[in-house]
Every structure is written in C-alpha cells, then in structure tokens.
Amino acid sequence: FIFFAFIRSNRWEIPGVQKMHMLVAFIVKMFAAIILFYIYTYHYTDQSKSDIYKYFLDGQKLVSIANHSFIDYLRILVGFDPVDSMSSTILNSLNYWNKINDYGLLNDNQLIIRVDSLMVFLTGNSILFTSLILSAINFTGMIFFMRSVSIQSLFQSKILFWLLFFSPTILIWTSGALKEMLMVTFLLFSL
C-alpha cells in the first residue's frame, strides 16, 4: 500500500530527483531497518543491553500503566507525573526512564520510551513493525528536508539526495527504534 501511495503522490517528489530513485531509497531504508532489527535480535542477544530492545521493553512496561490507569498513562505521555501509586511504582520500575547522568538536559530516554509505548499499541507489540514505521517517518522527514534545502541550495539536488539518503551512518542509525532516529527526525521536520 505504501509503495502505491508513494508512486502516485506528488508530495514525495524532490525537484531534480527521479521518482524511481526515491522508491529505491525507500526500499533501501526499509531493508536497513530489517537488517538493524536482525542484528539487534540475533547478534546482540542480550535484550537488556541492546539499544532497540531496552527502550522497547520499557515501553511495554509503560503500556501496562495504561491497562491499570489510562489517565495516568496519558499524563506520563505528555510529561506529567502519574497520580496513582500503582502507576508510580510501574514507572519507577522502568530500567532506563531515569538517566544516571542527566546534566539538566532533555531526557531522550523518556522520549524514546514514550514513542515505543505508543508503537506497542499501534503495532501489536512488534518491534520489527515499530522499526519499519519509525523508519518510514524518518524517510518522510528526510524528504521534507530535501525539498526545503534543494530550493535554497547551490548544490544539485541529486548530489544532496545521494549524500543524505545513502550515507551509511545516516542510513543505519535512522532506520530503527533508536534515540538517534528520533532526534534526527525531529531535527529534519523542524528545519
């Protein structure tokens, strides 16, 4: 379905970049998400230390608050403390909710755990589908960024496209349920 919507829509076009190249970039992005999932699932088997799993597991625990008190779950999602003591107990049991070294900055652990908890609802608890959906959202952010930059850039759109969409570091670290993917996606959408 996504492929057909992608091919038929003009919203996803970048001036100077062929639609077929965009489609290839999307397929490569989804393939990178699948590869990253398999690496973190079958190579790094300790899920308590694996980046995509440790936050996803905390997201699953956060969803258990919704089963107990949906109002508290919504409060936590928007940044407020829970009211119910059982919800507070569950929140305090999350392994990565609070950082050891906070430095007074935005806690990106809490952000990815919140997003993962929403994805648990949306994907039926599938980390693979979570990675694919978040990768598609990141891909959309990359397109919007490219569209805005290509209008104002002195460089050719094709060069920027190939650098942004196929740079190995960007491709891998923005293709899974990772904090880096969220930060880059928010940055792309904000520009």
Key phrases:
single chain; about 190 residues; mainly alpha
Question: How would you describe this protein?
Answer:
With 191 residues, the chain is an all-alpha fold. The protein contains 10 helices and no strands. It has helices at residues 2-8, 19-43, 51-68, 70-77, 85-92, 108-123, 127-152, 157-166, 168-173, 179-190. The longest helix is centred in the C-terminal third of the chain and has 26 residues, at 127-152.
Write a compact overview of the structure shown.
This protein is an all-alpha fold. The protein is built from ten helices and no strands.
Please state roughly what percent of the residues sit in beta strands, choosing from under 5%, 5-15%, 15-25%, 25-35%, 35-45% or over 45%: under 5%
Q: Helix/strand/pairing class, anyone?
A: mainly alpha
- Give the oligomer, counting copies of the same chain as homo and different chains as hetero: single chain
Contiguous runs where pLDDT drops below 50 for at least 5 residues:
none
How many β strands by DSSP?
0
Relative helix content: over 70%
Topology:
Layout: H1 2-8, H2 19-43, H3 51-68, H4 70-77, H5 85-92, H6 108-123, H7 127-152, H8 157-166, H9 168-173, H10 179-190
Helix pairs in contact: 2-7, 3-4, 3-5, 3-6, 7-8, 7-10
